[in-house]
Fold this protein.
Amino acid sequence: MRSLQGLLPVLCLVILVAASGQAASQNAAPAAPTAVASAEIALDEAQAEIERLTRGVTDKAGDDDALADLKVSAEGMTRMLLDVGVSFRPVLNDVKARIDALGPAPAEGEPAEPASVAEQRKSLAAERALINALTGRAEAISVQAGTLGDRITDIRRDLFTSTLFNRTEIDTKFFVESAAAYRAELVDFNRTLGSWFKFVWSFKAQALLASLFLSLLAALFFVAGGYRLFGGLIVRDPVLTDPPYINRLSVAFWSTAIPTMGMLAVAISTSSLLTSFAVLRGDIAPMIMTLLAVSVVVSFVIQLARAILAPRHPDWRLLKVSNAGARHLVAMIALMALVNGADYVLGSVSRALGSPVVLTVAKSFVAAIIIGLILVLISRLKPMLASSGDPKEPGTAWPRLISVSLLLSGLALPVMALMGYVGLARFASTQIIVTGAVLAAMYIGFLSGHAVLQPGAFARTSMGRYIDRKMDPGQIALDQAGLAAGLLIYFGVLLVGLPLIFMQWGFQIADIRLWLVRVLTDIRVGGITISLTGILIGVLMFIGGLFATRWFQKWLDGNVMARGRVDMGVRNSVRTGIGYLGIGVAALIAISAAGIDLSSLALVAGALSLGIGFGLQNIVSNFVSGLILLAERPFKVGDWVVTGTTEGFVKKISVRATEIETFQRQTIIVPNSELINASVGNWTHRNNLGRADIAIGVGYESDPRKVMAILMEIALAHDKVLRTPEPLVHFVSFGDSSLNFELKVFIADVLSGMGVKNDLRLAIFDRLKADGISIPFPQRDLNVHLDPSAEPLARLAEAISGPGTTIRMATRETASAEPGPPPDSRADTERDGF
């Protein structure tokens, strides 16, 4: 990390130069030497760091782990130097702008410019030259770092290839030397282990016992505690026959993941404790660490085989194999994992003790032969489920493709080992066991995620049933939780599985960390750099701001405005305004946290303005109208409004539209621009005071004054009719059939007007009936003049009034000889309802 520390003065230089660029010219000159000195020191340190890394590459050309660390340092230095060069550009542009502001220098023969301007021009030119020189040097060093990184990559590639394809002569001399080296290593191992144990027991017994005791506690905590907390996820119910496929996948996935994670936690805690208590010697530590790592891998392979094949639970088995076939396959897979793990542990012992390389090759030779023979035996098994479907019956042979693949793989390993390519055979056997196990686990994980994503599937899992039992979120919420769980499973499988596969193919943790840093912080699309970490932080900041806004809205509405008895409409307007303001502020903070330059949004704003000009006028008009409605408040939530053919209560006012609920409980979405541009009646604008009018007609034989007194008495007797203003009774008109009156009463709540009018009408009807005052209905007399020679009377009645009309006719003959109806002939018809 010296490279990062050595570049800190360069960042200070950027700040100093930027500050000097904003000061006057007389202040800029003294600051330059200090800034230049800091920059030169930083660049000298960066150059020294590059030279150190170059020497490290030469010295560690055969150590892949060390080369990976050097690669990370070189890549980090390249990014830092490039960032420094980019950071100089705004300062350089500012200096150029100030030079341009001074104008061109006077040409030869023209009057000289003032001395202060000439001095300022000279100072700015010198400053620009210094910045250009420093930028060029920083870029040159970054190029050296990039070249060194490429060189390290080439060396590691060649090292990997040479390790795999290095050939050893397999002859009698090889076995003789291996046997002698093995005997010497066995003696050396016993002596080394014995001396270490005597030393630790004599001088660090308490530290050793404490570390072992704490390791045992860690094992109990992680393994037993994991089964205690998550054991329900891996329980196979023996009573349940033919369990759903998603349940089988879920149990297989968690029965592999939970024990493996427990073992990994135990291994990490044990190695940390042994290191912290300083009980491991330099030659013992590699053996112990390799043993712990191999234990985790072997446990993972065995747990995965048991999870997929379920030798004791045929109903929960993922593969269609017999009981005997499942037991044999689990045993052979476990044996291969143990042999491969023993090869790595014994290899670490040989490296720690400095044994001859021939012994390491011999151990890998034996392991490759054994693993190959096991694969051949597996290819000859008959593990597949019998045609009857009973797992207890003897199974059938593998499908031909699988058996041939297993046989060829099993024969290839001994052949490669006998030909001398022991490293390649060891690599192939490791990929067959470990990489195959990782791919199988990833496949189960993907199947589990896919199954959880199906509608209603999450509710049938144990986790879904637990959530449903404890929280009762409902079916829709459970489906949404299943969607999130499925995507999370996908992400987790990729996040864990891909690095494991890359590590098996020769990549180091440092390589994966470097790739992860690049993906999260340095995705370049053309000239744009995208940072997934920054975007994630921005999203989290926006979500946090959104939750904070919602909490503040709720607190302000429920604790401040509610206690202050603020009008509901004001509360709604304030709550809505704070909501939009909070979302806007949260969005700005999130954009800044994501590393997006707000000035770059000018192009988006220009495009948005163009879109508004062509096709978004209505949207913008509604948006502005909504802001006007929220600020001016011509109506508020809960008001009874009438606009056009729409009448009802205002339920919600947003920036685009207003929701009005009619008396039939239908919600009408009215654009805000229509409410601004059209007439809107508000029955409850200032207050709820309103007037109810009731029209009544009585017969002509009634006394108008008595009727008016009765109406006034009835109005004053109602408890919801206001005394101030007092009710009014008007004699409106002389109608065709009645004397028309109108009762006008004022009520405190216009929303109760319908009920008040209903009560008053009933009271008026009862009172007028009791006092013998009639309420007439319209009557009409129709006189029809008929021609005696016309069609029959019944047909005429049907033509005039329809069937069922009663005709009364009186005719009178005249002496006139003129054709046509007699002048006094008429017929009186009475229509139904009159």
